[in-house]
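Q: Convert this sequence to structure tokens.
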Amino acid sequence: MSPARLSAILLRMGWQDDVGTMATRMTSARFVGRAGELAELEAALHDAADRRSMLVLVAGESGVGKSRLVDELIDRARSLDTLVLAGDSVELGDDELPYAPLLGALRPLLRDGHPALDGLPDPLREALGAVLPGFGDRAAGAEASQASVFEALLALFEGLAEEHPVLLVIEDLHWADSSTRSFLSFLSRTLCDAPIMIVGTYRSDDLHRRHPLRPLLAELTRDPATRLVELPAFTREELAEQLEGILAATPDPGLLERIWQRSEGNALFTEEILAAGLDGRGPLPPTLSDALMLRVEHLSETGQEVLRWLSCQTSVDHELLAEVTGIDSDRLTEALREAAASHILIARDDGTYAYRHALLREVVHDDLLPGERTRFHSVLARALEQRIAAGDAGAHITTQAAHHWMAAGDQSAALAAAVRAGNAAERVDAYAEAHSLFERALGLWERVDDPEGLTKTGRRELLMRAARAADLSGEMGRFEALVRSALELLDPEAEPKQAASMLTQLHRAQWELGRHDDSIETLDQALALLEPCEDTGERAELLARKARARMLQSRNREAIEAGREALEVSRLVGDRSAEILALNSIGVAQATAGEVDDGIAALREGLALAREHEQPDNIGRSSDNLADILHLRGRSAEALEEARSGLQEVRAAGRSGVWLTLLVAEIEFALGNWLGAAAAMPKEGRRYWGSTLLNHRVRRIEQALGRGDVDQARTDLDVAERVAVDSTEPQFLAPIAAHRADLERRAGNAQAARRAVDEGLDRLEFCTEDLYRIALVALAGVRVEADEAQRARDRQDADAEKVARERASAMAERVSLAAADGGPVVQAMSATADAELGRAEGNDDGDGWERAAAAWEELGRPYPAAYVRWREAEARLRLRDREGAERAAAGALEIARPLGSRWLVAEVEGLVTRARLHLEGAEPEPAAAGADGEDPFGLTARERQVLALVASGATNREVGERLHMAEKTASVHVSRILAKLDVRSRTEAAAVAHRHGLADTEAVV
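A:
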């Protein structure tokens, strides 16, 4: 045994204090997943504390996180005043030490001179000396029977448990010596009512058929008092959380995928892979590699030979394995059986063999000699080529062949095989795989002779095929780069149409990457390559795309101009797709610019054409645009019908219809069907990018804010803002800014809320003519300023109030201008803005809020109506109109509760409680004796005097001096006032007093 290994073993058992330092593993401090397993362990711990002894076995493969889970349990146990004893079993083979884990667990007691040791009678002290060298008076060389040792250990644990509950942890039971295993069996039969919990961990993947731990496990698990906790590998989501804990940042999707593929969710393997390189591509560290190889080296030579062949491919069928290895049938079967019994291989239901864990396969493959590796891969590649030649040319087998040729170093064969496999992947819509294979082929292109002859294609064509695959798999950055590379191989003057087509693809990539101005400039370059007088399909498409780009920016005049030109050319050349795209762009731009009927007519014409010519993508786009315009004009029920109809059509054609799905969720939310909106959202786990990602996040933010889930809203807002940093699309810029302002306003962060409004308006007013979206942000701004003006009045800060009122007025004017011809939705927004302006100026009388509520209710938009009713109740209460306040508050709750708007319900209920409003079906709390009947909060006359002084800024001492009472009495009055007002601080009490006319210090005697 090496000195380093021995020192590590001795350190575990407490024999050494310092054995030097080891390489640091990259470990997450965050406890990831395992909530159910930890809860089960904690429940057992509480059961043990109630004098019900517990035995729990924690099983899982190597590195899955058993020790981390137990460490978490130990921390919880210590916080509950539990004595923790922990020891590790040690793999020593023939040199096994009896009771090794118990020695490690008990040595701290001996070192600290624990009184429980001194309390043992002499015979037990002597027997315990067999486990604890240096304890007791046992003569050197004297032996104790196992029974006496067991009794001594039992007496010790029971003595310890008389003072505190005891948690005994034995790690790595698969390495436990026979004496420890026997004692564990004894302890499980003997303990019953002592507050002792025993936890044993073991590696399930180490238990071969004849492993000595198996009989003990069978015995223990038959006892109903024994609990077995089996740890699975991390899910992909839990692995992402582990990586975030290590990297202190959200992991890149590519890194997550690489780690997931290599580690298969194993926590330890994840740490080791990252330790080898933060990109997840580094070689495994020698320590882990050596540990894994030990398992392989225990097998027979034939078994090791089979494993070496199998390491070259993720799974192999028996026929192929027999062909490439040349091992006779009986020996091959025996070798496979041996590897399976050792938990290295698994036999799958499809008749193939594979390594139980990917990293074990990787370690064996890395251990191959260079010549050996080349020979194995070459033989496998040729064997697969024979199957391909026989007609089995599917994506799976062609990709395997391409891998083997690459691994064998045959670059010519690898290039041809990569293109062939990419073609096969495309045929089954495996675009991510096709992209990777085409990129590999491009990397080999310059390294071989006659690449065009080998692949039957040109480099430019291959670049564009790789670009298309990157586009369809969501790799927009690579999409752009590949198109640019293809353009470099083209002479635009010699092939203007081909160059224009490539520039169109570049435009698409730039738009999805958020570089909208660059994208439109690219379109202009493409149009310049085509003769202005030449009417072609290429020119029609470019003009239609330019119209769409300007429409998405709400530059309506430019969109209509480009759209009409596109419409003329597309109809002349018969390009129906460009015609439909142009009609869509014209329709949206006209409706946004106020020509609503003409815009809707153009949209319906485009939808009819798409249906006539059976173009499902254009059916989806046309349905989405038509429904969106109808919804923005307040015709939401009609919009929902159009969206659902379009969604049904595109799904029948095999399309996902994600934008229509999100629009259905948006309309359902606006109409008050929040459960339906949540159900309509696309399932989690889908990967979105560009504008689709923004659309998805905006819908999530909207729903989270409505419910009051501010943490979720903040997370999604942070993502959306990063993605939209260069965007010029008002449909995203406006809601992101408005939602951020609302979120920060609710959090009391006025500075951040104002910044969100100002930045949002700056970006919108610079790049768009979309008055609706400008009004959306401006309305959020009026709301922020109304809050700030109220707060300034509470503080008696005239300057701050003036600033807030001026800003509120400017914001409200923007909304009013938009409402001039903006339709009923913007008019309802304008009525709300006017009411908010009145709140900012301190003169809202309730009638303005009532008009706004009526406008929203007429549109069938319950959520803003509920908000407005809440504000109406506040306004009427300030005017001592208790009946009107009760009616408005009841109306707000009647809407907000069924919606599930927890934050709004809490606000209204807080107002009702503070003001002791009487709502039907909910009696108010009785007012305090002697209360002024007109006081909305049930304050006594004396309490109103105290509140008035508190509102003026008086301390408890000053209140006592002014009202001739002791300071302690004043403090009691203040506490009662806070309770009646349902506020938490003197500052909040002062604010309520100012808002409800209770701060008149002149009335104080």
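The longest helix spans residues 771-795.
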